[in-house]
Amino acid sequence: MISNNEPHVDFRNFNVTIPDVETTYWCTRFELPSEIVKKPHHIIRFDGIVSPQSEGVVHHMELFHCNVPPEKEVPKFNGPCTTEQKPMGLTECRRVIGAWALGAANFIYPKEAGGTIGGRAQSRYVVLEVHFNNPDLKSNIIDQSGIRIYYTPQRRKYDAAIMEVGLEYNSKNSIPPHLAAFRLSGYCLGPCTNVGLPETGITVFASQLHTHSTGVQVFTRIIRTDGKIEILNIDRHYSPHFQEIRILQKPIQIYRNDTILHTCIYNTLRRDDMTFGGYSIHDEMCVNYMHYYPKAELELCKTSVNDASLNEFFLAIHKVDYALTDTTHKTVEENYESIRWTPLTSAILQTFYEEAPIHLSCNGSNGNYLPGGNWDIYSAQEPLQRDVVLPSRCHQ
Amino acid sequence: MISNNEPHVDFRNFNVTIPDVETTYWCTRFELPSEIVKKPHHIIRFDGIVSPQSEGVVHHMELFHCNVPPEKEVPKFNGPCTTEQKPMGLTECRRVIGAWALGAANFIYPKEAGGTIGGRAQSRYVVLEVHFNNPDLKSNIIDQSGIRIYYTPQRRKYDAAIMEVGLEYNSKNSIPPHLAAFRLSGYCLGPCTNVGLPETGITVFASQLHTHSTGVQVFTRIIRTDGKIEILNIDRHYSPHFQEIRILQKPIQIYRNDTILHTCIYNTLRRDDMTFGGYSIHDEMCVNYMHYYPKAELELCKTSVNDASLNEFFLAIHKVDYALTDTTHKTVEENYESIRWTPLTSAILQTFYEEAPIHLSCNGSNGNYLPGGNWDIYSAQEPLQRDVVLPSRCHQ
């Protein structure tokens, strides 16, 4: 355990008056303490600090490190993240070094690892982003919420990092309306873990599951090279309102050639139109941010259905259900919207997603593909990965 | 062979002027020759006789024996079968004793069997029905077409008879529109052949396949109790315009507990609405009239999908495709018409027909069920019968 008296630094709102609108993202730029700027440190714990008067309104908070050269200034800012006044200079502040969400406990790193921060080679700037969710339009709440970082110059054996697995952010994998449970999966396949993980493998010790508002179940499974399946994280009662980072009860190793199969189940009973994969709050995502060590080449391993196969699907649904799909003149979104969505056509799409060839993005920390890491892989080569069945009793 | 000089009698039209309309059924009542009336005979051959001037217009002809008590008069008649002037007394004249259709050869019984006719216990009346198909509306053709019966008082070892297998004449099994090939099958199952056939089995020596206008392939298979499958009759290029009775190249035995699986494939590309099973020329049938000996208890062995299962289908298609089916307030026909027929929903119906429980009518010659012969049989008990695959090369 790490005592509350250990060295720490707070990044908290400066008496922000929470706007009386439903949704506000509030951004504040900070500088790291000079002792951290001087030499590399490890973050060994971080806590969310929610002002008592703001409880129930602070939805989640993230502390981002700015991934810019150390000499580069990041402009001072304190205001809504979405305002046009927000300086472009904050755009590169996206590396998560601390986070809190409704339901989250304090985040304590395993004793052999820490989050990397500080040193002359790194930018000294961080940005706190606080999401206020204020559906009752309460006014006059003065907020000082934020994140507390515990740090140490005695760096531990391993640098921890975050790896993102699941679905690519595009509309190829989308969700029909009026369904109680539609399943999407991302397949981080063996060829990617083979080139992207160290020979000794990695240890995942925490996991943050992420969807937008229609996600109802999320789980990540590891498929070993011998076909055995282990559950990394599972939430059978997932709520997008509780996106805490969870420390795994038991850390789990991932080795080269293992497959990381990340699955989200969505409920679109209240939607009348197709829900697309994408960035907007009305779009959907299916991601697991895995906290692990030691830091690997691989940072993002995500898939979506293969383009040519999706066109074949649009052609087939035209033939069998007279949908006015048109792969020459319509976009993917327009084609999905040309289909008469029923449980029947939805079931066909579900089966298609489970059996169709996929495109796999296997990216390093610079955002580029790892060597060979841009694959159109045919599912027929990986049949087991689509067929696994979860045990009926919850794990963990 | 039976020489043309053997005793015979002709039942031919008396100089009928073929009406200049597309479709005419012409009916003529005859009396059998007195020597036949006096004692039971065997029919050993029958020929179609088409007047030269009527060739191409005479579509098919059938000679029916009247199944009424011998003392009962059947009124004299010579006119269109469908006119209201046709006496009701002809209604019972339905037992086929001779037939000809476009493409038919002379029908010669196997030497050990003959068709039953004559004797004091039988009616002396027969009715000839000639179907004129005159789409060119030709006029002034005087027709003397009909059927010639060869008979003998030296009766052979076995009485021949006709058994009807295939689908029941109702709308439960129906055909969606706009399909190149939709399959319907009737299943004369082991429990029926077990109670309806003699212990020594029967020998089928001829077969008449029958559908209405959308039939394109018809075949009958025998499934033995050991699972082996034999083809009784197959027409991969079936035309409803050539409904001849075919003498089988090789007679085939059917034993107790064998299954007789009769299948028809329909093409409804030119239809915009559902084609129902039924009697009308716009409805469809799927039947094989098998000529066999010795005469058995079983005369009709036909199936259709089980009522409760069909209701479950209508309920399911409401759920999965939002069809406005309603098993409480709509008829079977109305429910079929409530479905949006696409290749997809049609494929579901096809699978349903192949896998759903069935009702089996197992009837004797009096039209009543044989003992136990009214079954709702679950297909799960007979899985093999739905899965058989035809050889790719034609037999016969």
Automatic annotation (TrEMBL), chains A, B:
Its cofactor is Cu(2+). Residues 158-313 form the Copper type II ascorbate-dependent monooxygenase C-terminal domain. It is found in: Membrane. SUPFAM superfamilies: PHM/PNGase F (SSF49742). The keyword Repressor does not apply. Residues 10-138 form the Copper type II ascorbate-dependent monooxygenase N-terminal domain. The keyword Transmembrane applies. InterPro entries: Cu2_ascorb_mOase-like_C, Cu2_ascorb_mOase_CS-1, Cu2_ascorb_mOase_N, Cu2_ascorb_mOase_N_sf, Cu2_monoox_C, DBH-like, PHM/PNGase_F_dom_sf, Tbh/DBH. It holds the Pfam family Cu2_monooxygen. GO terms for molecular function: copper ion binding; dopamine beta-monooxygenase activity. Keywords: Copper, Disulfide bond, Glycoprotein, Membrane, Metal-binding, Monooxygenase, Oxidoreductase, Transmembrane, Transmembrane helix. GO terms for cellular component: extracellular space; secretory granule membrane. One of its GO terms (biological process) is dopamine catabolic process. Belongs to the copper type II ascorbate-dependent monooxygenase family. This is Tyramine beta-hydroxylase.
